[in-house]
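Q: Predict the assembly, please.
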Amino acid sequence: MSRRRRIMGLPTAVVAVAVGLAAAPHDARGQDAHLLVVVGIGGDPAYTERFLEWGTTLRTAAMERYGLPPERAVLLAEDPSMSDAIAGESRRERVEEELRALASRAAPDDRVMLVLIGHGSFRGSEANFNIPGRDLSAAEYGALLDALATSKVAVVNTASASGPFTQLLAAPGRTIITATASGGERNETQFGQYFAAAWEDGEADLDKNGAVSLLEAFQYARSETQRFYDDANLLLTEHALLEDDGDGEGSREPGMDATDGALAAGFTLGAPGARGAVTADGAVSPIPATTDSVLARLYAERADLEGRVAALRRSRSSMDPDDYDRELEALLVDLALKSREIRDREGGE
Amino acid sequence: MRRAVAAWAVAVVAVAAPAPAATQDLAEARAALFAGRYDDVARLARGDAPAALELRARALLDTGEYDAAIRLLGGADGPAPSPAVERWLGEALMARGRWDEAEAAFSRAEAAGAPDALSARVRRGELFYLRGRRDEAFALFDTFIDVYNGAPRLSADDLMAVATAVSYLGRRTPVLFQDALKAYDEAAAAAPGDPRPLVAVGDLFLAKYDAPESHASYRRVLDANGSHPDALLGEARALEFDGAPGTLTLANDALETNPNHVGARVFLARQQLRTEDYDQAREQVERALEVNPRSLDALAVLAAVHYLEGDRTAYAATRDRALALNPAWPDLFNTVAELAVDTRKYADAVELARQAVERDSLSWWGWGIMGMNQLRTGRIETGKANLERAFAGDPYNVWFRNSLDLLDSFDQYRIVETPHFRIMLHGSEADILEPYVTAVAEEAYEALRRRYGTEPPTPIRLEILRTSSDFSVRTLGERGLGALGVSFGSTLVMDSPAARDEGAFNWQSTLWHEMAHAYHLAMSDHNVPRWFSEGLAVREQRVARPYWGHRVSPAWLQAYDAGQMPPLSQLNDAFVRPAFPEQVILAYFQGSLVFDWIESEWGFEVIRSFLSGYRDGRSTNDLARDLLGLSTSALDDGFDDYVRERFAAEFASTTSGLDPTPLGRAAGRTGPVATDVESLRTQVRQRPGDFQARLRLAQALVGADRYDEAEVEAREALRLFPTYGGPRGPWHVLAAVHEARGESGEAADALRSAAALDESAVTTVLREAHIRRELGDADGERAALARAVEAWPFDVEAHERLADLHGAAGDTGGAVRERQVVVALEPADMAEARYLLAVALRNDGRPEDARTQVLRALEIAPGYEAALDLLLDLRGGTS
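A: Predicted assembly structure:
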């Protein structure tokens, strides 16, 4: 154990986990998510293994926890012989092929998450993610992503010097996450490890709604990365950014109420433990579908209370702290009672 | 006719005196002077020509033959044979403290319009200054600005005189130091090879805390003249500034050239005082005063000798003798103050510095000493104000600047008050450390109060600084101190656990150590010798927790056995003038054994009596004779018998080892270091009683998966050296053996035994906790995790698990503490962390605090059903 959580303490077996096509229990539209993980060139056996472990962790979580079928959770890596989970070599031709396949396969409402794990470089104005053979530049990734039918796209570049991807790939409806704030942050990064781990269990479900959102995965990974550096008594050499308002300016601390973060808050691979349904735009709805009119009313009332809590929270800075706490507690008590009522009713269904 | 007589007279003189030196010879004499070939100077600079006299006089001054120089230049009453050498007569008289006669010589030089009249004038100004007539001195120095600005061309001597005057003026206007430097540089250019401007430049840089530049200047002189006494002394001072070794050698080298060099003797005396060698210091300074009875620097150090020996009558007499020469001289008090700090008399230093600045409000050194020591004694605001005043007058001072920068960061710290403490914690870790530091600090206070039967002044200010460099600046004013903590009495300063790597030290043990010092300093009125307080503080660590404090090590055993450690009666030497760098750390352990011995033989009461005796100014030898009934030699012999009997097994098994420690090697012990099993096996056969050979073999066997054989060797190593607490020791080997065999219980027990010998064994106890968890040994796991978080409180998982275990064991307070720390560590999942804290608070009977926490959890995650239920429970089940 250490200052950080040793989430990756034991080597993860690099094996593909075969799962069926069944969607997650509460995610009626879980099959709309697509994951492409590209593990770049390691340059050293230790890095090669480490990057593959992160990629495998993410893919396994997507399949096991979020119910993505193997063909929609694709892993490309430097050396396909290292694991059956690897669909192919992460050369540019294969990456282009997978993204073109996604362009033809993914429907306009589908969600696509492209995750790059490995080393990056930045020279002049060109930012690259390093793969075997000739790299694909950020601009080339951008062109491939533009061909997708859906705009609900997340690109997560966990590599060193990944910062420029924020500006180069920003587009409406698109979420860009980078491990570094600029091309100048060239040291080895840890962000990818924690981003992958965020999907493994419920630990990154920070708002306890049963689903990990892209925003939560980012927040979790950023927090654990900071802990890693604190633990090692090192200066933080990677400053992750999230950009989702399309202006090309990433945020270090995105949130529901911040410049960036609202879109990422609604982006999930699915909602395995969520009480609500996943909506067409990928978010978890506070109002589950039901044929019970009483439950439907209760769900709506609960959603209203949750909305009022969110509104109150937004006005916190302008309120007297005691007044705020008083109003918050009153709302939360109503919410607790409503939840209890819902549970009673659901138990009787 | 008269011309003929005159010619005859000249001829007689020429016959009677050495033939005058030719111009070529004078040039060679000058070169010989600059190169330190002083005998050649006398041979080459013959005759009574002023230039020859000057060269011979300078050679005599460099070599300390001041009286010979005075005779050469016409005697003390003057006049000198030529106005051109009056100034050098003055210099020789100054060196002997004959101020009146020196002043007369300088005045004659000025009145006669000697070529170096400006040099004589500035020396007259310096005499004013030495006599405390500062206004007259500064008025005279002021005139040199016009000299410099008005003269189209100045000689090297003139430029040096200007530089000297301007450097004095710089005490009022710091920026003028740059002008002084410029003038010295011009002087050096005008007199190539002359060491004087270069030494002056070195001195000026050193006065402005620029050691690299000062080294460069001194070395330029020493490259040409390796025995130049002023440059040697300057280099010694620069090395002292750097904290580098070799200062004493250089100062002694200076005395080789010039046995009457007062500056070198004063320097050596100061060093000897710093190592508490009062007799040697007194001897040095008395020899300095024989040369120059008016040396204010020597009188200051003599006053410090008396002060530190506690002889207030002699101190007052020496102080008055100095003040009679210069009633406004602040550095008498500054010198004593600075040396008092070395013996931990911080409050005394404040008072002495106050007397310094009362005499001279421009004594930036005095304001600085006062400020620094007010900070050390907990008077933060006043200390900071005085330090700011000092820094305004001396803006080059790195100590002042570092300390002020650190003080500016104090607003990032939070003060936590307990019954006996004001604890300063960095905001980023205050919530993490507070529950532990408040508990252990008060526990230490109470335990030591009971043991010593007294209390130090309260509140005790405890500063836990976030970085080692901040701790170092707080302690010394500069970075680089390797220590973990320091006690200034009732102000304790130490590293935060975050300042070092995980497992590097046990901060709670350090805190206890520093607390022990607070008692020792209070009981002895800051008169306890360092060895006594350090050794006793280490013993107090072990009394508090058996696994805390220094352990016996092969390094100490070998050093002790080789005679590299001083006997008990001289143990202070290892702290204040260590013979080798590791000796200090070994002396901590050795010192602690002294108190193991004394307490077991005579009881703790006698230790308290020692502290009272120190307070009364008594020496260790006196106290040992009266309290223990032992002469110095009997004390040393008794202690030697004690350690040799107590560690008989350890001595026997390490001092004949095949792999000596670096210290062992230094003592001449050598031997091959094998790594393969068979070679190690051969060595063990050859030397079956060698602990390190056994241990290496055991380690190698584990590496080769030969566990049964490894166990045999590890158990034998354990028998040979049962208290070995170093890394990868026998218990670690046994743990690995048992784990490999699946003997989890035995593995956990072995790890516990290893941790019992190492206060910072974080990794070891975490491994033990892991195994005990698998075994279902909740109590054992809890104890192991408690050890882990004690030394390293930043492990989220350890706190979470410990909270669960405390809760399950019914220790609701412990569960709350651990949950609070989890929240303080800011895990990504703050909603859960706050919810679990709320649960722990509820279980501890604190529903209101629980409600606050659950609200914070729900604020983050309003849909968190467990938290919503808890909120209702806390409100009695309804709204």
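The interface with chain B takes residues 1-6, 203-209, 219-220, 223-224, 227, 230-231, 233, 275, 286, 305-306, 309-310, 313, 325, 328-330, 332-337, 339-340, 343 of chain A (CB under 8 Å). The CA atoms of residues 116 and 157 of chain A lie 5 Å apart.
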